[in-house]
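A brief tutorial aside. Many learners find it easier to grasp structure tokens once they have seen a single protein encoded end to end. The record that follows does exactly this for Transcriptional regulator. Read the sequence first, then the structure, and try to relate runs of similar tokens to stretches of the chain.
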Amino acid sequence: MKAKSPNSIDVYVGNRVRVRRKTLGMTQNGLAELLGITFQQIQKYEKGTNRIGASRLQRISEILRVPVGFFFENGGSGPIDGATNELNSFLSSKEGLALNKAFIAIEDPNIRQKLVALAKSLAVAGLPDSDSELQDSVVNS
């Protein structure tokens, strides 16, 4: 018998929980203790294997200091598309989280703009010359 695959919204919400938890430097154990559940249950929530009930999601939002709408695209109004999933995967990766934290720590807006320009130039430099359409989209984003 084939195992049921997780619902894409449950996976998305779980990823948002993981991203916020990691941004705050909180462990799965820490969140689990505050919720009175096991860290294995947090793992299942974050993978989307188990759905998070409304009251539990409300409590998680309080602990992670974000509104419930944070866990849904555009406050829950809008489809979850490929770009959203790609962004969410990046933000929940070790590198994405580190880059995000470092960028937020930069207070000077001019330095932030220079860092974005640097990242764009590095991205274009890594693309094949034949992909001018993609190069244009990176430069103009």
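Self-check: Confidence is low (pLDDT under 50) at residues 75-79. If you spotted this yourself, you are ready for the next section.
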